[in-house]
Amino acid sequence: MPRRGGNKRKSSSQRKAVTVARKKTSNKQRQSIPRAAKRHATDTTDTTEATTSPGCSKNKRSNLSSAAESQDKKVCITQQVPRHSFDGLGGMKDLKGEIRRTIVRPFAHQNLAAFYNIDTPRGVLLVGVPGTGKTAIVDSIVTDLRTLGLNVRYYQETGSCMSKYYGETEGNIRDLFQAAHAGPTVLFLDELDGIGKARSGNDTSSVNQTVVTTLLSEINSLDPSKVLLIAATNNEAHVDPALKRAGRFDRIIHVPLPDPESRREIFNLYFQKKELEITEKQMDMIVKSTDGLTGSDLKCLVERVHFRAIERVFPSGIWWTKLSEKEMEKKKKSASKILDNELNAVIEQYLKDRNNEDN
């Protein structure tokens, strides 16, 4: 009997034929899709699933956070390589002798120091304006200790322990001091006025309170026979008084600006490194004109004098032009001579720039 609509019921053989035809058509359509499109569809699906899945997203964020924290700790407790030695530091003759006698020798020869009842300082605080060579002095102390046969570790905190997250700064400080406990170690806290900022009754920041408290606790736990603690600051008044008391930083050394004799020695070192020839008359003039400048200023001044000489030899300024070896040697020799007018112009311009910065 015919169904509604006038369509007759299909037999089983007809239904099988239709099913086979549909499968063939579907296979042909799949084969016509390029492989790249298939890969793109798969990648998009995987990315979508990863993005829309809350658990996966949360795990990824936690993994990234853990990796960042681990990286921060690695930066904070990475051993440093000293780049200076006392022989390479110009000037500071009396200061270098004092540091070697009262700090380096007692720490390197502790048996002899104990026999003569000489105490190793628990902490040394270097105070001076920026550019006077405080970091270079610490590097030189490490170099001196290793020259004397003491294989010291060298850790330096220059703000890498500071974190914007609550409690992480204190944790980084504890990790740093824990690494130093292994000894023998030189632990250098640069810019102590930043991490050990003075607390006051008006200070409502609980973060600074806990950071300084943690720092005090860790310093008290140090063994002076294993760890030589050195810190530096540009502003001693901003350092918490509890840090500066005897038993923590019991030796405070003021690093002064270079005097005329020190400036002459510093200039000789830098001019020799640049292979520049300078007369005695020129040296007297530059030493007299640079009163009140730091060691970093003197180095920068020599750099400018050297570059002015290079520009004179290469009027077009293109000193990187490929030349023959003979011609390069000739140019270099010509640039090694300093002209009076160039020296005067560089000094005058540098002092002018410095005055503008101060104002």
Automatic annotation (TrEMBL):
Keywords: ATP-binding, Cell cycle, Cell division, Nucleotide-binding. Residues 1-13 have a biased composition (Basic residues). Residues 1-74 are annotated as: Disordered. This is Cell division control protein 48. SMART domains: AAA. GO terms for biological process: cell division. Residues 120-259 form the AAA+ ATPase domain. GO terms for molecular function: ATP binding; ATP hydrolysis activity. InterPro entries: AAA+_ATPase, AAA_ATPase_domain, ATPase_AAA_core, ATPase_AAA_CS, P-loop_NTPase. Belongs to the AAA ATPase family. Pfam families: AAA. It comes from Orchesella cincta. The lineage of its organism: Eukaryota, Metazoa, Ecdysozoa, Arthropoda, Hexapoda.
